[in-house]
Every structure is written in structure tokens, then in C-alpha cells.
Amino acid sequence: MDANREVLAEVVLAVEQAGEGRLLVGVDGVDGVGKTTFADALARELIARGRHVVRVCLDDFLHPAAVRHARGPDSPEGFYRDSVDVDAFLVAVVRPVRVGEPIRTAVFDHRADAPIDVPPTPVPDGGVVVVDGLFLHRRELAAVWDVSVFLDAPTEVALARMAARDGTSPDPRVQRRYVQGQRLYLEECRPAHLATVVVDLADLHAPHVLPGGED
What we know:
This is AAA family ATPase. Pfam families: AAA_18. InterPro entries: P-loop_NTPase (IPR027417). Helix 1 (about 5-15) packs across helix 2 and helix 4 (about 75-80) crosses helix 7. The chain is α/β, with parallel strands linked by helices. The chain starts with a helix and ends in a 5-residue tail after the last strand. The protein has a six-stranded mixed β-sheet with strand order 2-5-1-6-7-8, with helices on both faces. The chain contains eight helices and eight strands, in the order αβαβαααββββαααββ.
């Protein structure tokens, strides 16, 4: 078994140990670390093992630009505290999962800066909702996850991946809003201490699970 499969197997085991009911699984990490790719791979692995999976991206629950940039377009604190519409995510995803109702997998298109209306998606008993996104262990969300994963990599590595993906600058000075905003989150919430599984993703070809409580 290669390293990626070994890491996924450990996360799948944590999901299996979390129980048979509807589960919320969060994949957290800084911008560019590889959250979406990891969450998609985890979803495929769970499906292969017979679980019904619904994928959700927290980027589809952002505030409008006017809210996100209310503290200033370059504000790290604004990026951390004002990007995600936590209340909308709780209403559309978390609460329905807990009472067995269909969820809404998206409420906002940040590219168009406009609300969107998607049909409800049922989550059957035993289903798993896999969510990837930033700041999943912030105080308002840390307790909602049945299983959570924190993907860890050095800032320069994550910035280089983001640059390759989005065509942005890998210079942390240019990306100050995002780098410093994520640093605020890491220092305030210590997600690596809260996550069920912490994965060192510095090398995409050689990921490994870190002992609990790592930073």
C-alpha cells in the first residue's frame, strides 16, 4: 500500500469508528495545501467501502465581498473572521444532517458574488458529508465534526501549490492577507490539536499521519 492509501485508510478507519449514523467529516488546512484533492480522494475511498458520500466545499458558503472586505481588502483579520458565513453553513448543512433532513450543498457563488439556489440533497442514514475548507476548527465549528482532518505543510509549500493552481504570486509578502489571516487562525484555534487525524502533506508523494497534538 502506498503512502497516500495508508493515510486515507487511517482516516477511513476513524470514520468507521465514529459510528453508523449520518456523519460530518471536515478536511481543514491552509490555502493551497491540497484540501479539495484530499477530500475528493477520501470520498472515493469511502464510496468504495460502501458508504454514501455527499461532498461540500466551504467556499460555497462565503459572505459577499462587501462583508469579506469590510475591514479592508488587505486585512488578515477580515480574511479570517469574515470570509465564511458560518451561520449559513450551520443552517444549510449541519443542522439538517443532525435531524436527518436533506442538506443544501451551496448557498453562495463567490465568483459571481451572488446567492445561488441548489436543490436539497438527501443524506441517507449511514451517509457521510465530507466538507473541505478553511478554518474548520474555528470556535463556531470545531465541535460539529464527527471526524476531522488537518493537512499540514510549510507556508512556502502551500503558497507554491496555490500559485501553480491559480496563477497567483507565491511571495508571502504579496499574499500577506491570506498568510497572516491563516496564522491568526492557527495561533488562536490550534487546529492540529483539535483534529482527529493530522496529516503531514509537505510532500504530496509521501504524506504521513502525525502523532496527535502536533503543530
